[in-house]
Design goal:
mainly alpha, Lysozyme, two-stranded antiparallel ribbon, 2 strands, globular, disordered N terminus, binds 2-acetamido-2-deoxy-beta-D-glucopyranose
């Protein structure tokens, strides 16, 4: 069994290189890159080549309806029939989709008085209408370990 701390610094750094310092757009909620990275870790181990698996695609494991709510973004030249899988399998388009989804559904899911990455993780996993529900332990643990690792890298 691979130890849970196996999320490698190399993984994080490679994702950091891909996403840059801060991905958020000018309008809407401001989400910092560490948040995107740790949601990605929780969703798939941030596997950028994970492809589609049943109803979910890409490193963020995004469904068609999430992609639609996130703005139905498409890559240049993508045919309409391929717009969803091609977008959410592309790291940049996937992040913009997550951003679009959060712009739409940002809320204080855990009732702690602030809207931050802990809430975005819940919205990502549980959806915009059910984010107060329980998170599965593995998902939450992976996220927490990622945040801790990045905090240590930052300092
Ligand atoms: C990423 O996902 C693909 C498809 O499921 C899999 O073949 C590959 O081993 C995964 N890579 C890692 C690093 O887990």
């Amino acid at each position: 069994m691979v130890p849970s701390s196996s999320m490698s610094i190399a993984t994080i750094l490679s994702v950091l290189l891909i996403y840059g310092q801060q991905v958020s757009e000018a309008q809407g909620v401001v989400i910092f890159d560490n948040c995107f990275r740790c949601i990605c870790e929780a969703a798939s181990g941030c596997n950028l080549t994970s492809g589609c698996d049943g109803p979910v695609c890409g490193p963020y494991r995004i469904t068609w309806s999430y992609w639609a709510d996130g703005g139905k973004l498409k890559l240049d030249g993508s045919p309409d029939s391929e717009a969803y899988p091609q977008c959410v399998n592309n790291p940049h388009c996937a992040v913009r989709t997550v951003q679009g989804y959060m712009d739409k559904f940002a809320q204080d899911c855990n009732g702690d008085g602030v809207i931050n990455c802990d809430d975005y993780l819940r919205i990502h996993r549980l959806g915009g209408y059910g984010c107060t529900g329980p998170l599965d332990a593995k998902y939450e643990d992976t996220f927490k370990r990622c945040k801790e690792t990045l905090r240590n890298l930052d300092s």
